[in-house]
Every structure is written in structure tokens, then in C-alpha cells.
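S.,

Sequence below, as promised.
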Amino acid sequence: MLKRLILIITLLILNQATLAGPPQQPEDQNYASARTELIEKHLKPAGVKNQTVLDAMLKVERHKFVPEKYRGRAYENISLPIGKIQTISQPYMVALMTEAIRPKSGQKVLEIGTGTGYSAAVLGEIVGEVYTIDIESELAKTADARLKELGYKNIHVKEGDGFFGWPEAAPFDGIILTCTADKVPPKLAEQLKEGGRLVMPLGRDFSPQTMVVITKTNGVLVTRPLVEVQFVPMLGEIKKN
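The prediction came back faster than expected:
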């Protein structure tokens, strides 16, 4: 009788384990350690001070946003190719640009140049809603699927020309361009909220560029330079203007 009771209990335990599905595997500790090292050895020494931004950079798993063949280099402080002559930005640049718009909970931010969705994910950990646009259909679709799979419900992705912004969701507390242009697209200036901040690399294609932060004050755009950079060019309507 006792043996039968033990057998029944064992079967019940095994059945419950099967229903629960496979055990969740912890994240590879090498990746977690590499993220911490990225923060401590690169971002902080480079001057990134906003703790909310640092926390977001620590939480977002960059290796899930880079092509598989580059995952071993995901936490190096470098940009990496993602196809279509596009790159995933250097972690320092993501942190710098995110910090520059002074992100806060509840804000609404527009990003031009979704790429793989990494920068949007960092923003999504901080602000209320993120609207991100990529002109490349394939990049927009894969980034949207990836962000949904990772559970981001506050990030909205669409394929389109960032020159026109996202008027249905405007105005925005902050706007980030992850591609260079020699001027601020006028529609983006219109969609920036009074007191809002726009961050972008300013300059001509493949020429010296300056990362700038632009504040909208009494309807006027006030520009302040941050650092010298090199970003891929903005595509689309901007080339006709």
C-alpha cells in the first residue's frame, strides 16, 4: 500500500512538472557580467551620470539585438553592422543620446532610425511611450517582432520616412535621430513639445559631424554641441531638401 502511495505521489509530481513546462534557464552569466563591465569601465568613465539611464543600459540585453555572429562582441563599446549599411550604435552613444533628452517616466519620445530596436528598448525602460520609425521595411518588421517578443508594450514601431515624423502621436517630449542630416527636418521641429529636447548628429554624409542637443524654447530651437561623431546618413525626403 505504501509503495503504491509513493508511486502515485511521484506520478503527480512528474505530471505537474510537465504541465509547468521546461525550467527557465538563467541568463548566461557571462553576458550579465559583460553588461556590468560595460557600465563600470566605459559608460561611467565617459561621463554618463544619469542613474536611470545606466540602470536601463544594465537591464537591456544588447546581445539579443545584434546579429548572431556578433553576439560575442555585443558588450564591447563599439557599433556593429546589422545589414542595409546600417549599424547598431555604440553603447556609449545610446547612453549619451538617451541622457541628453533628460528622459522621465510618463514622457513620450520619438526615435528616427529603429535599427534592431536596441535604443528603443533602452528608452522603453524609462519613458512612458516610445514611437520609432525606420525607412527600411525589413528592419522595422524584425525590430517590431523582437520588441514584442521581449515584452515591450510601450514601444510602437512603423516603417516610414522619419523626415515626416509621427504627427498622429505628436507632440513629443524628446526626439532622437540615430542618423545624420545637415539640418533639423522641419516636421520634427514642429512635433517637438515646447521645452522638449531633440538630439541628433548634425552634418553632411560621411563628413565631420557633431552630436547636438536642441531645446525648443518659446518656439525657437537653441542648439548646443556635445561631441564629434560619425553616423550613417538619413535617407528619404531629406535628400530632396
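The helical segments are 2-20, 29-43, 51-59, 91-100, 118-124, 137-149, 186-191.

Coffee later?
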